[in-house]
Amino acid sequence: MSLSLSLQFADPAHRALLPRHRVLRWLRAALAGPAQLAVRVVGAEEGRALNRDYRGKDYATNVLTFDYEREPVVVADLVLCAPVLEAEAKAAGITVEAHYAHLLVHGALHAQGFDHERAADARVMEARESEILLALGFSDPYAASAAPRRSPPPAAPRRPSPASAAPRRGRTRPRRCPAPGSSSR
Q: Could you read off the pLDDT of 46-84 as tens digits, one per residue?
């Protein structure tokens, strides 16, 4: 399977935690076919601006997925907010590396059409995430808690992603991952 990856660090704080070979391994484990992905690690300010502009939520969130195409090649941008991700990992008592792996898998699944807005869809997506992360040697991110997930965000207007210069077809509304340990189960 081919994977074209652009790995960008607007916030270099976590560059050492995300060597290219690890990111490729985690994404390949989540992808069912060829993909062209841009992964951008940002600080709180950029994360907040993107979440505000594309979801209407004025706070930084852990991951946003901008998926453009699914066939014949998955084309998407994944934006991870380093400070939010680090705080969530600390609160959940997991490593930052494990949380990055989870959010990259989560974002790659979103880019392929998985969703968690309805309970039945969430169970399918969470089971797939758990299966992939266990195969990669990480703990099941949903095993620690059966706490209910927050309500899904309302649909945002479709706009092109800032991580991509060329216009692409498909979904441009970003999707957000729940905090570690939250589940719809």
A: 999 999 999 999 999 999 999 999 999 999 999 999 999
Domain assignment of residue 104, given as a range: 3-176
In this prediction the pTM is 0.80
- Please report how the helices 20-30 and 96-111 are oriented relative to each other, as an axis angle in degrees rounded to 10: 40
- Rg over alpha carbons for the chain, rounded to the nearest Å, is 15
Query: Domains in the chain: how many in total?
Result: 1
Query: What angle, 0 to 180 degrees and rounded to 10, lies between the N-to-C axes of helices 82-92 and 96-111?
Result: 120
Count each helix (H run) and each strand (E run) in the chain, helices first: 5, 5
From CA 18, how far away is CA 98, in angstroms rounded?
A: 11
Alpha carbon 111 to chain centroid distance?
9
Give bridge partners of residue 66 from the DSSP assignment.
77
**136 lies in a domain?**
yes
CATH number for 77? 3.40.390.30
Distance CA 86, CA 170 (A): 30
